[in-house]
Design a protein that fits this description.
Bound molecules: S-adenosylmethionine
Strand content: 15-25%
Distance between the termini: 49 Å
Number of helices: 12
Oligomer: single chain
Order of helices and strands: EHEHEEHEHEHEHEEHHHEHEEHEH
Shape: globular
């Protein structure tokens, strides 16, 4: 029917799990199955040139992503759920936009990290790979069924540095000495999911308008979980992300939390070479990142990176 909004299907993004393998071996594996890797994707001159290649991707061709070195891009509709590299945990089927938050947080190997809303665990296993499985990665989820999935997903991905907590993160005391060395936190809370393209394709425009009341309670929850993350005593960097397109869950949450934490934190430019930025009617909008089907060929996503102010200068940024 006319009122159903249709987005073109997204490419199939494949994140190479560096805990199990490397990009060259995965490319070689697909080539041995008759796929051809576009060598030019090692050296695009511009994002526009990359987007044009993604747009024309068909059949058994694939490329490297422009921004994320461990992400490969296949044509829409490829289903790798039965593929041996997927079943043995060598590749993770994760939308490109959802690979951005852990890439930006980039916790150092050996550091202490919290993933406060972790299940099913795509970003947790990515964080473990960035950390080279060294350090402590505390992963929380309060939902029982999703927590089980998290456990098995992390085992399959070869994650060894995770400490799993089936717990409401809001009830974790920032004064608990278990977490006193935590410097990096990923906040990827439940959201309306209004950015998910497959969802957009199955609902009508009318249904898409998330009721104001629901949006308000999601936003309050998101703001409290982000504030809670910032209250850990040694936290240095916190990345906040949603798969929502609503400003109420994105820039407005960031604005509220920056105000309520009284100048202790500032935003740094999330993924500097990403051109699609946050909404321009917020003065900090350009520091945040948005992604969407057009122009980025990803789900709708929002990412902000907050860092503790260490001196007056940084806070004036
Ligand atoms: N980061 C995950 C990934 O990349 O695979 C996706 C996280 S999903 C958007 C949000 C998760 O937050 C859900 O699994 C939900 O159960 C969990 N959650 C919601 N409120 C929570 C809370 N107060 N404490 C811990 N987990 C919570």
């Amino acid at each position: 029917p006319e009122h159903v909004r249709k987005e073109a299907p997204l490419p199939r993004y494949v994140r190479v799990n560096l805990l199990k393998t490397n990009v060259e071996d995965v490319i070689g594996h697909f080539e041995s199955e008759g796929y051809s890797f576009d060598q030019c994707s090692n050296n695009y001159n511009s994002y526009e040139e990359y987007l044009a290649s993604v747009k024309s991707l068909t059949g058994k061709h694939f490329l490297k992503d422009f921004h994320l070195p461990n992400v490969l891009v296949f044509p829409p509709g490829k289903d790798f759920h039965q593929h041996p590299l997927y079943t043995d945990g060598s590749i993770i089927l994760q939308d490109k936009a959802s690979c951005i938050p852990a890439h930006i947080l980039s916790p150092l190997p050996g550091s202490n990290v919290i993933d406060c809303c972790a299940a099913p665990g795509n970003k947790t296993s990515q964080l473990a790979a960035v950390m080279n499985n060294e350090g402590k990665l505390h992963a929380f989820d309060k939902d029982g069924a999703r927590f089980k999935t998290l456990k098995s997903m992390l085992a399959k991905a070869g994650v060894q540095c995770a400490h799993l907590h089936h717990q409401d993160f809001l009830k974790v005391s920032p004064l608990d000495k278990t977490y006193q060395d935590v410097e990096f936190v990923l906040v990827d809370p439940s959201c309306s999911g209004s950015g998910i393209v497959s969802r957009l394709n199955s609902i009508t425009d009318k249904e898409d308008s998330t009721p104001t009341q629901r949006l308000g309670s999601l936003a309050s929850f998101q703001a409290s979980i982000l504030k809670h993350a910032l209250s850990f005593p040694n936290v240095r960097r916190v990345v906040y992300s949603t798969c929502s397109t609503h400003r109420e869950e994105n820039e407005e949450v960031v604005q509220r939390v920056l105000l309520e934490t009284g100048g202790q934190f500032h935003l740094t430019r999330a993924l500097p070479n990403w051109t699609h930025r946050g909404l321009g009617d917020f003065e900090f909008g350009h520091l945040c990142l948005r992604a969407s089907a057009q122009p980025d060929y990803t789900n709708g996503f929002f990412v902000a990176c907050l860092e503790r102010c260490l001196g007056d200068k940084e806070c004036l940024d």
